Amino acid sequence: MYPEGQRVKRITISGALAGLSLVVATTAVSCSRATGIEVSEAWGRPSPSVATAGAFFMTIDNGSPEDDALIGARSPACGAVELHESYMNDEGAMAMRPAEGGRIAIPAGGSAVLEPGGLHVMCIDKLEDFSEGTELELSLHFEQAGDLTLNVEIREP
Amino acid sequence: MTDLQESPRSKPVGRLLPVVLGITVVLALFAWLVLPRLRPHQFSGTVLQSEVPAADFTLTSANGPVSLSDYRGKLVVLYFGYTFCPDVCPTTLSDVNRALAQIGDEAEDVQLIMISVDPARDDPAKLAEYVEFFNPTFVGVTGTDDEVRSAATPFGIWYEAHDEEGASGYLVDHVATLNVIDREGRLKLVIGYGTGADAIAADLEYMLR
Q: CB–CB of B161/B172 below 8 Å?
């Protein structure tokens, strides 16, 4: 092999490794993955301890070619975790209902946004302090991608 | 001998150009800075013309009885919610707190009162701890089912409990507006859910004038 060829090969491999490390590093820092599913901007609203319920919000991206859905969640910070949706009813009142079919769909190549006034992961019977700056563990269960555990920061939006 | 032709720039039109430009700039600045202040405030909430003060109520707080009329002379922001509410109520109370922070010193003259639409689960002590988490000046009140219903009805606040499958127990669907009563005790403004701290602050600031 020509010396130049070897040099190009080495540069290409180093470049690829550097690029890969960068991707891995930024992924680890900013969001969490489980085969095709990426959860970013996860946060929980600060909540007084007398409030029985809390809420987590996040953006879920599905980079895989298969439709997926969030179908459940668990957390050591909550007695029970359910998927809910706030909405305005016919009386102009704000109401809440379980997410339709008990699942939050994330289509292939699409995303689902859980935000105040809409879809959220509801923490029922808070067992830990939901004060600003606290990090709580949340395990999300996806129909296709399986389990994904992440740390959610309690903070103002 | 011919005179030198005058160059175009020394013609009268040329001399006027900087003046015209100057006037245009001044007019543009005027339009940009002054006109917005001359326009009436655009309320995010719905403005009501109430001829008489809003219906008074007396409900129970952790510090004893609280009547709407106790706060005559201040703006009262009345909100109907409950402590089990995981999303809508914390969002709204947090937004009002942020709005008050934006308003600054004048926020002293704004009193938020939350009336619990869930008297069965919300006792006065729990309510106080709940609302004070969002802002130490907030007041939470409750009463019997009838007392709360009587307080809510004149403000057009529809609310209804309904059972939920799952661990949440029952939920209370409720109109989540902020009802702003002016210093004379009249219901003046109804701010819809989700209006956001900036818009709330702007509306309250205008009413504090």
A: yes
